[in-house]
């Protein structure tokens, strides 16, 4: 049974990765092993954790061909449409290099260049996610990244999910490595005989993947340290309880640690949603996972008015936020912190996960207060250009020297002085 809380001043509870010293020590040990022993460590950990003895680490052409034979035409059509939508959305985020020339001859600018090589991690534990391939690879490709390597754990027979392989092949990903967990992150960060070191690692994973990404950050870049998934639904009395319950469960089925929250000013709606959750759970294939999520991390908050609910939302900064209210666009300007906002009863979170176009790799754990969904900017680097004219150097030399001397950096001041005095 989901908790019902009637208190406008309460703070929404959040599931976090804490007290993880044992997992962190394990991750550090695995990363050290991969760094020192390369492919040998990857084979060993795949046998230990995935219970399969691989003959080779990378997916073959024959496996790709077999994957196409194991997916339906409907799947192929659907994923091709999703690729088109996601690519079109991310194309609008593309940046261009620029230069600005002043009347005095100084040129200032910024070079926009893609990262050279990126590694994407695709989960394969409780379920396989072709959509994760699309959401991680497409913005990198739009940015201009030339080399993308994908890692994903194999099943007990050494196979990768057919849908995941087809998604990767449709995007032209050439190297697919059958490795998961912290060991995959280590391979991408340090490089092995088979896996070339990357510049950035993106993609969701379990606690071991998250901690491994956190550990290698600095040696390589990462997208984020993702925590448990979250959905908050803000709904008024006119909301359809069947839709609300279905959307809460769509997130709860991900993981027992997922959070599914309803905020409403209607006691009647809260009661109806409770009944609908029970009804829909009975026929949900992943009932056990969703039920645990709802009971341990779910809640219905009854507030005196929706303004109070918005205050709670901005404090919580949810990964996914649905506004199932009358005139949802009137609330958008009041929402300060959310990874993605879904407007109206037709805009279920599931559309964003698969098809609409915006990225489904979103900030969790309250990080939407200061970070953004995965996007094209995550796969570029910016370099400043400065070509200072002689006229501007002479005109501004005294000001620059003043600032340098204030910071007691006489070498900086002297670098200006020797130029301004005409020494060559």
From TrEMBL:
It comes from the Bacteria. One of its GO terms (cellular component) is cytosol. Transmembrane segments: none annotated. Belongs to the histidinol dehydrogenase family. This is Histidinol dehydrogenase. Substrate binds at residues 229, 251, 254, 320, 353, 407, 412. It comes from Salirhabdus euzebyi. SUPFAM superfamilies: ALDH-like. It catalyses: L-histidinol + 2 NAD(+) + H2O = L-histidine + 2 NADH + 3 H(+). CDD domains: Histidinol_dh. Pathway: Amino-acid biosynthesis; L-histidine biosynthesis; L-histidine from 5-phospho-alpha-D-ribose 1-diphosphate: step 9/9. Catalyzes the sequential NAD-dependent oxidations of L-histidinol to L-histidinaldehyde and then to L-histidine.
């Amino acid at each position: 049974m989901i908790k019902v809380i009637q208190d406008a001043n309460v703070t929404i509870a959040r599931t976090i990765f804490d007290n993880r010293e044992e997992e962190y020590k394990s991750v550090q040990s695995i990363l050290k092993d991969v760094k020192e022993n390369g492919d040998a460590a990857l084979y060993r950990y795949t046998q230990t954790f995935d219970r399969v003895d691989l003959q080779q680490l990378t997916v073959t052409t024959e496996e790709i061909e077999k994957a196409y034979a194991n997916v339906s035409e409907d799947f192929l059509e659907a994923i091709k449409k999703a690729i088109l939508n996601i690519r079109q959305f991310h194309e609008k985020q593309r940046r261009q290099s620029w230069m600005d020339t002043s009347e005095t001859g100084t040129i200032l600018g910024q070079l926009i260049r893609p990262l050279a090589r990126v590694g994407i991690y695709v989960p394969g534990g409780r379920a396989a996610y072709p959509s994760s391939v699309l959401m991680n690879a497409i913005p990198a490709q739009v940015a201009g990244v030339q080399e993308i390597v994908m890692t994903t754990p194999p099943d007990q027979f050494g196979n990768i999910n057919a849908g995941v392989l087809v998604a990767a092949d449709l995007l032209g990903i050439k190297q697919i490595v059958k490795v998961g967990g912290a060991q995959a992150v280590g391979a991408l960060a340090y490089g092995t005989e088979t896996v070339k070191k990357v510049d950035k690692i993106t993609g969701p994973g379990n606690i071991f993947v998250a901690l491994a990404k956190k550990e290698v950050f600095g040696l390589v870049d990462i997208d984020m340290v993702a925590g448990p998934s979250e959905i908050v639904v803000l709904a008024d009395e006119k909301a359809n309880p069947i839709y609300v319950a279905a959307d809460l469960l769509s997130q709860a089925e991900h993981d027992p640690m997922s959070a599914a929250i309803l905020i409403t000013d209607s006691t009647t709606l809260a009661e109806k949603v409770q009944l609908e959750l029970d009804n829909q759970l009975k026929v949900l294939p992943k009932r056990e996972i969703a039920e645990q999520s709802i009971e341990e991390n779910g809640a219905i908050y009854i507030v005196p008015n929706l303004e109070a609910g918005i205050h709670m939302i901005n404090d919580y900064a949810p990964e996914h936020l649905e506004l199932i209210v009358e005139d949802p666009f009137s609330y958008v300007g009041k929402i300060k912190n959310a990874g993605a906002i879904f407007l109206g009863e037709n805009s279920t979170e599931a559309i964003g996960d698969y098809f609409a176009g915006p990225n489904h790799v979103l900030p969790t754990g309250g990080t939407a207060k200061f970070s953004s969904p995965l996007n094209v900017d995550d796969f570029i680097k910016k370099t400043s250009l400065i070509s200072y004219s002689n006229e501007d150097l002479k005109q501004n030399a005294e000001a620059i020297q003043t600032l340098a001397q204030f910071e007691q950096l006489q070498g900086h001041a002297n670098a200006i002085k020797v130029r301004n005095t005409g020494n060559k």
